[in-house]
Amino acid sequence: MTPEDENFLRRAIALAAASREAGDPPFGSLLVGPDGAVLAEEHNTTISEGNISFHPELKLAVWAAQHLTPAVAAATTMYTSCQPCPMCSGALARSGLGRVVFALSGEQLDGLKSTGGFPAVPLEGPALYDEARVPVDGYYS
User: In angstroms, rounded to a whole number, what is the distance separating the alpha carbons of residues 93 and 15?
Assistant: First the structure.
């Protein structure tokens, strides 16, 4: 962790604080390009925009996929106030970003909550493999 990394993490934490002050969950992120310039910043807007997917990490991953070449994306670093959740981690993997640096771990975040997390949704499967594989088979070749 460099002093520059710490400064960018402090900016992500400041974005998280501003998000909370605005009435949204306290999470913030920024994307830094290969030259050290901030390319984009986001904060959580799941409440104010009424969209449960509007985590800052997801919004920046989508922005990067739409606006950056694969080479530039691979040379970027995302700084975020908290470890990305599974939804955001999936988007980050697909976005091609080079690196993610976070302040709070998911475990540390859970320790700060006075109530439990979201209830687990039961998942059932796999099922109908022979049918479900038809549209997928060969796609990733």
Answer: 23
* Global pTM value: 0.89
- In angstroms, rounded to a whole number, what is the distance separating the alpha carbons of residues 41 and 60? 7
Catalytic residue among 4, 42, 57, 124: 57
CA distance 96 to 94: 6
pLDDT score at 74: 97
Is residue 20 exposed (0-12), middle (13-18) or buried (19+ Cβ within 10 Å)? middle
The series of mean pLDDT values per 10 residues for the chain, 141 residues long, is 96 98 97 97 97 97 96 97 95 95 90 79 93 94 91
Residue 57 annotated among the catalytic residues of the structure: yes
**Alpha carbons 105 and 114: distance in angstroms, whole number:** 16
32: burial class by Cβ within 10 Å (0-12, 13-18, 19+)? Answer: buried
